[in-house]
Amino acid sequence: MKAVIFANGLLSDGKxxxxxxRGAHLVVAADGGSRHxxxxxxxxxxxxxxxxxxxxxxxxxxxxQGTSVCRHPVRKDKTDLELALELAAERGARExxxxxxxxMRWDMTLANMMVLTAxxxxxxxxxxxxxxxxxxxxxxxxxxxxFGRPGDxxxxxxxxxxxxxxxxxxxxxxxxxxxxxxxxxxxxxxxLVGERATIEIQEGPLFCIVPRTVEIEEDESPSPLLQGVPxxxx
Length: 234
What we know:
- The structure is a single chain.
- The chain is α/β, with parallel strands linked by helices.
- The protein has five helices and 15 strands.
- It has helices spanning about 15-20, 35-40, 55-65, 80-90, 105-115, and strands at about 1-5, 25-30, 45-50, 70, 95-100, 125-130, 135-140, 140-145, 155-160, 165-170, 175-180, 190, 195-200, 205-210, 215-220.
């Protein structure tokens, strides 16, 4: 099941967001993300949050179109986007595209990136979309396949902690069992040498940033290098 979430940041490509929303099984507006939905003519299934960024008039319009409102108190321990991500995961989404998660506020941008690493999100592929860029997080014990074009630039950045056992195949700069410390820039601006490349990680998490032309797929049959490595759910 695929879901699309609209957050309250900058929306750089409304046309793609609208197209993706039309093909999704679940569309969620994280509070102020409802303004993007209304501007694009997208009717979300749910709007969730404390509603401090959505006017009463906009809520009325959404409810008249069939949108459910999931209201939370203003004094809460999670951002509206985290609540939206948890809702999508609870409803069975296996892939979630998030639009409008970046820009406007540095604190919210950083929090929106780091929420991808939350243990509760381990069973769901979360992808932040910003113009031509896609960002997801790869976890320890995973083998990921990238499908793209020769020369497509891929960057890998440790998500706040050391990442070990990194093996890259099909890249201009391959690695074999390498380690990246937190803060390392070793993985910035690598590139595909063909139409297919693989990333294996023994322990993570690792941010993976790719262009629109690259598709990201999880390999369900990890290589022998990863055998015996606990899955993120263990």
